[in-house]
Amino acid sequence: MGETISRSVPVEQPHRRTGEPPTGSLVSYVLPVYDEQDGLRRFHRELVAATETRPDFEYEFIYVNDGSADGSLTILRELAEADSRVRVLDFARNFGHQIAITAGLDHAEGDAVVVMDTDLQDPPAVSVQMIDEWARGAEIVSARRRTRRDTRFKRLTAHSYYRLLHGLAEVDIPVDTGDFRLLDRRAAEELRGFRERSRFIRGLVASMGFAQTEVLFDRDERAAGETKYPLRKMVRLAADGVTGFSTAPLKMITRIGFLSLALAALGILYAVVMRVFLPEVTVSGWTMIMVVMLFLGGVQMLSLGVIGSYVGRIYDEVRQRPLYIVRKVIRHDEH
Predict the structure, then answer these.
(1) 75 and 207, same structural domain?
(2) 6 and 216 in contact (C-beta within 8 Å)?
(3) pTM for this entry
(4) Residue 315 is part of which domain span?
C-alpha cells in the first residue's frame, strides 16, 4: 500500500467549535458494505490498528450490509461476535450506497462520525488524521484525493465531472472529494434532517457550511473484489449531483429555446428571400423543412428529458416511502 498520510488543507469558515473534545469521546464509523467478503476481515484489522493509535477516544463500528449477495453478512456476524464495538445493520434488500450511509448516520451515537468505504481505497490511517483535525476544532473534515489508482477512463471522467459539478452547482462542492469524511456531532445531526430520496451526500454536506478542513491522501486500488460503482451507477450518481444542486439544465433549455428561435427566424428569412428573388428554385425547400423539423424535434426531446429528470425527483419525494428497511440489528451481546 502506498503512502497515504498527508497534510491538511484548511477551508476558512466563519464559525468553529471551541475547545478540544474530552478524553473518552465516542467516534462512530459508518461503513457501508456490499459484496465485500474478500476484503472485510483485512479492512477491519487495519481499521482497528489505526484507531489504536488514538486510545484517548472510544469507538463504535457500524457496518451497514446493503443487501450483499455473497458471504459478507456471515463475516460481519463474526466481527460482531469478536468485537463488542461492532454493530451491523442488515438491510432487507439493496438500497444503494448513499442510503446505506444515511442509515449508518441515523444509528451513529458518537461525538464525531467517520464515513468511509470498506474496500481499503479509503485508508483507515487517514481517518485518524481526520480525527486529529476534529480534535483541533474542525466540524467537518473531508478527505480529498491527491492521486488515485484507477483506470485512465475512470480518472478522466471523475476529474471532468467534479469540475463540471463545481461549476454548475449552486453550492460550493469541493473537487476530488467523495463520501470519505468526518462529521462533528452537530453536523451529523443536521445531515440526518435531510430526508430526500435521490441523495448526493457530498453535496448535502457542502450545503450545510460549518467549519471545514480537507485532508489530502493518495487513493489506493481496491484490496479485493470489483468496483460496486460501474458506469451505469456512476452516471446515475452524477445525474443526482447535477439535478440535486443545480438548476443549470433547466436554464440551458431556455437558452436552447432562444437559439432555436433565432435559427428558425433565419430560416424564415431565407425562405422569404428565396421565394421573392429566386422563385424558380423554391421547390427545393424540402431539405430545409427536414433540417428544421429534425432540429426542433431534437431540442424538444432534449428539453422533455431534462424536465422529466426534475419531475421524477418530485415524484420520488411526494411518495414519502421509507428510505430503507433494516431487517435486523446485529450486536455483540446477541451471541
Answers:
(1) yes
(2) yes
(3) 0.67
(4) 248-319
